[in-house]
Amino acid sequence: MSRFSLVISCFLFVSTIVRATDVHYCDNNEEHEVMVQGVDISPDPIARGQPATFSISANTDNSISSGKLVIEVSYFGWHIHSETHDLCDETKCPVAIGDFLVEHSQILPGYTPPGSYSLKMKMLDGHKKQLTCIKFSFDIGFGSSVADI
């Protein structure tokens, strides 16, 4: 195998593990206290029964001392799951003015159906004021990440 082929193979392998996801604001409003630059999902597609990490790059003009992440998941348009997380468990608090990263990892049950899902995430401050609301899609594969490679 040539060196060029090896580099291309490595690039294709890595690009299937982590991929940036298209993010949209829930209300098509571009003015939020927290602006989201992007979401990376690893691995992509997510493997059932294996750890998955959602990394959300964001920016704020105000310090955030506390808050919640409210997450709703849909499968083929049907709401199937909701969960709430303490913002400070997913990022370092207080969140300083500027860029920050919210990272959430979890293992999806092995019985999770494969397919395309949509996720809606609201970020609320300590007074339950909405700071941002985003939505994006993600895929869950048929097997484990080792079997898909």
TrEMBL record:
Keywords: Signal. InterPro entries: Ig_E-set, ML_dom, ML_PG-PI_TP, NPC2-like. The keyword Signal applies. Coiled coil: none annotated. GO terms for molecular function: sterol binding. Residues 23-138 form the MD-2-related lipid-recognition domain. Gene3D superfamilies: 2.60.40.770. It holds the Pfam family E1_DerP2_DerF2. Residues 1-20 form the signal peptide. GO terms for biological process: intracellular sterol transport. It comes from the Eukaryota. PANTHER family: MD-2-RELATED LIPID RECOGNITION DOMAIN-CONTAINING PROTEIN _ ML DOMAIN-CONTAINING PROTEIN (PTHR11306:SF39), NIEMANN PICK TYPE C2 PROTEIN NPC2-RELATED (PTHR11306). This is MD-2-related lipid-recognition domain-containing protein. It comes from Arabis nemorensis. The lineage of its organism: Eukaryota, Viridiplantae, Streptophyta, Embryophyta, Tracheophyta.
